[in-house]
User: What shape does this take?
Amino acid sequence: MGLLAFGINHKTASVALRERAAFTPETLASALRQACEQAGLNELAILSTCNRTEFYGAAGPEAIEAMLQWLAASRDIPADELRQVWYSHVDQDAVRHAMRVASGLDSMILGEPQIFGQMKAAYSDAAAAGTLGPELERLFQGTFAAVKQVRTQTSIGASPVSIGFAAVTLARQVFESLADTPVLLVGAGEMNALVARHLREQGVNELMLVNRTLVRAQALAQEVGAEALPWSMLGDALSRADMVVSCTASAEAVISLAQVRAALKRRRHRPLLLIDIAVPRDIDPAVAGLDDVFLYTVDDLQSVVDAGWRQREAAAAEAEALIAERVQRFTGQKLIQQDAAAMIRTLRGRAQQQADDERARALDAILQGADPAATLARMQHNLLNKWLHNPTVALRQLAAGGESEQLERFAGMLGIVLPDGGADGNSPT
Assistant: This one.
């Protein structure tokens, strides 16, 4: 039985198809059990996000086609349509794929950390559904260890690679504590939604949101825990905020020189950070000439993003090397385990054969009139000699070669406490 990783993602399938193939948290447990039953798998985990639906299983390669057929039937997607965007990895390649995905190396945004949490959720969901077995347990634990090493030994997630992330990074450099920084978002579109989430992750407590359409402002405010304000209160909000991020779809500036000048007067010239990430610009460029105002545009942030991408790409190369080592180690450990299992089977088989032989000889002797007690004693003596011969020879060779550390390790494995003085036998007098 081997390891498998297969499915679709943002590189192979359209958003529409990914939506059709996705699983909700409520349906995941039943889907796992149903898939195992119908596709003949003993172990299965499903990673389902907006960018991918992937399956991790322990079975032979023939299970991949069975899973494709099951997904097609359960999601009412033609199998041929799935087959055009489907990818699969087996054994060592499956391990590498899992580690790359969980580390953010296969993500739309290189190095993004959310996928690691989603991978851990897939592991927990499989465990709860009863579809997590020993093979997948090893795969996930090995994957989690790889991600920890990538995150601690590289800077894969440190540099900003989106305008929203760059805006928050800038704010962290300007303000001593974002928790004490009132922030105003002007506009309720996708970009400001992302900025709002980044700000919340960085500990911002006071978050205001102004939009021309109050209903949209209220919807986003509810999602991110912000205070929604009507457009008429923009001037008042400017005076309350220490940081403003504006991103609307307006064709002309929505924050004028006069508005900022009035806000500064009410603020008693307390410094104000303005970040304009709209194209065309939302904030009158003349605002940059005011005292106590720091204005940054999307062009300023783009240079930060470009530098961030270069740094993450360099870190990604380091991460790939670490994962390659992890994959080799994972594969090596599996081979060692397989070798150990084979050795144990051979050892037990040999001991069983010796016991059977001695028992047959003893029984034959007793049937021919030999003394039972003496015969059993002889059988016991013979078995002890046979079973202990090889370990005894090995221990003597270690002692003769001065291999004290290996001798102590061997003794510990056998549950033997060496006499005082250590393995070299030099007991104190």
Notes: The radius of gyration is 33 Å. The chain has three domains: 2-159, 164-300, 333-413. Strands lie at 2-9, 43-48, 52-59, 87-90, 183-186, 207-210, 227-229, 243-246, 272-276, 293-297. The first helix runs from residue 15 to 21.
